[in-house]
Design a protein that fits this description.
six-stranded parallel β-sheet; 2 domains; Rossmann fold; six-stranded mixed β-sheet; Dihydrodipicolinate Reductase, domain 2; alpha/beta; about 350 residues
Length: about 350
């Protein structure tokens, strides 16, 4: 079974190595970055490697046509068009890309091409969504679901007190994309970083939570009048990111000129922030997930809480976010292969 993984980043690389452990899979990894691919060659020489720019959807369609299964791990801004290109090739796929578009817009295209595509299959949305749906099926009526999730460095280091544990561009997207949720049966749109609250978690301490656009397909697939998702960070992070956003540092549109060269504020900011957000070799990260589901069963009020705490595994040198996101997606690939 030939599997192609599009993207060799923080999560894409561990997913490739995980799939390569099974003799039944012949795994090829594609990325544009020399650094990412060379690192992967050292960690897993058995993988087939292709260096290629994946920004052209037509070329993606041609590329994946020779494979049986596809794992879409490109950055969010490329994710939707890449997913569409994979469907046009008639290939079954698992997708972790965090894009802004509605995944259900691809439903008819997938039906026409007889394609199974599991979207948003990370830690949340993804694994967490499945756990929530499992609880929802036990209830006669779901009244509310509130989910808190975040990936953080285990040790806080000033000034950022944060490290990017998945695509840094997608991290910034969490601070700019309007958050959609369901309140009293109606869709509500709030600014990202809004409605802060402090929550205490054992083994970690107090974290701050804020609105992000992570509800995704759950807003459609679960029948409940109240659904919300919030991202977790160490206290103080909201204010830092809000200042950068409001000053225009995250703007994609406005063009600025530096020494005769034009760029966007976001591209400039990325060049400054990303090296400071990079995990050091062997640095431990943690992933926290909590979902509170309330509803009724046989006339009785019920409340379920799902908690997960995970951290970096030094034995395998795989960060927690790659474990919880990536292994959800590789499990999805195995499910598709088994006839899902």
């Amino acid at each position: 079974m030939k599997v192609i993984v599009l993207g060799a980043g923080l999560v894409g690389a561990p997913m490739s190595i995980d799939l390569n452990r099974e003799d039944k899979f012949e795994v090829t990894v594609v990325d544009y970055s020399d650094i990412a691919l060379n690192s992967l060659r050292v960690k897993c020489p058995e993988l087939s490697i292709i260096q290629k720019d994946l920004s052209n959807p037509e070329e993606v369609t041609a590329l994946v046509s020779d494979y049986d299964l596809v794992l879409n791990a490109v950055p969010g801004f490329m994710g939707f068009e890449t997913a569409k290109a994979i469907i046009k090739a008639g290939k079954n796929c698992a997708c972790i890309a965090f894009y802004e578009e509605d995944p259900f817009e691809l439903d008819q295209l997938a039906i026409e091409n007889n394609v199974t595509m599991i979207m948003d299959c990370g830690v949340y949305p993804g694994m967490g969504s499945a756990l929530i749906m499992n609880v929802a099926r036990k209830l006669d009526k779901v009244e509310s679901v509130i989910t808190y999730v975040g990936g953080l460095p285990e040790i806080r280091e000033w000034p950022s007190e944060y490290k990017a544990v998945f695509s840094p561009i997608d991290v910034i997207e969490e601070y700019t994309r309007p958050a959609r949720y369901i309140e009293n049966g109606f869709e509500v749109v709030r600014p990202a970083l809004s409605d802060p609250e402090y929550i205490f978690f054992p083994r970690i301490g107090t974290l701050e939570a804020f609105n992000t656009d992570g509800l995704r397909t759950l807003a459609t697939t679960i029948d409940a009048p109240n659904l919300k998702e919030k991202t977790l960070r160490y206290p103080g992070h909201i204010e830092k990111m809000a200042i950068l956003r409001e000053l225009g540092f995250f703007s994609k549109e406005e063009s600025i000129e530096i020494k005769g060269m034009k760029t966007s504020p976001l591209e400039m900011t990325a060049q400054v922030l990303f090296p400071n957000w990079k995990l050091k070799q062997g640095e431990s990260d943690i992933t926290i997930f909590q979902s509170i589901i309330e509803g009724t069963k046989d006339g009785q009020k019920m409340r379920y809480t799902i908690d997960m705490y995970d951290k970096y595994c030094p034995d395998t040198d795989v960060i927690s976010m790659a474990r919880t996101t990536g292994y959800t997606a590789t499990l999805a690939i195995r499910m598709i292969d088994n006839g899902l």
